[in-house]
Amino acid sequence: MIFLGIIPAGSTDTIAYCLHGTTDIKTCIIHIVLGQTTGLDISSISNDKEILKFYASVVAYGYLGDIAYENDAYRFLGPRRYE
Fold first, then answer.
1. Distance separating alpha carbons of residues 6 and 76, to the nearest angstrom
2. Which of 2, 13, 26, 61 could link 8 by a cystine bridge, Cβ 3.0 to 4.6 Å?
3. How many angstroms separate the Cα of 68 from the Cα of each of 4, 15, 20, 50, 51?
4. Contact by Cβ (8 Å): 7, 32
5. Residue pLDDT, tens place only, 1-50
């Protein structure tokens, strides 16, 4: 079994929030250090030599990724671009 620690470092930090219930970096690190675990759908695509793609909760976060991609033209608005 593989364990993966998620520390928020992006603009929405959705995966970190789903796992830890917060986007506060220090709180997330404490959760990781204490060994708290949560199930998450994780998948990868690989060939014989390497992992080509690695992704988590594809259905839920894929939609958010599409929104973020289209809203990138409005980056000057800061977080309000998601509204």
1. 27
2. 13
3. 24, 14, 22, 28, 25
4. yes
5. 667 788 888 777 877 887 788 889 999 899 889 988 877 677 777 888 88
Q: What are the angstrom distances between the C-alpha of 25 and each of 5, 13, 29, 53?
A: 12, 10, 6, 25
CA atoms of 43 and 82, how far apart (whole Å): 27
| Token pair recorded at residue 31 | 């959760």
Considering the entire predicted model, what is its pTM?
Answer: 0.48
Alpha helix positions (H), 1-83: 14-20, 25-33, 58-71
CA distance 65 to 11: 11
Angle 31-37-40 (CA atoms, 0-180°, nearest 5)? 120
- Written as six digits, the tokens of 21 are 């219930």
Residue listed under structure tokens 């800061």: 78
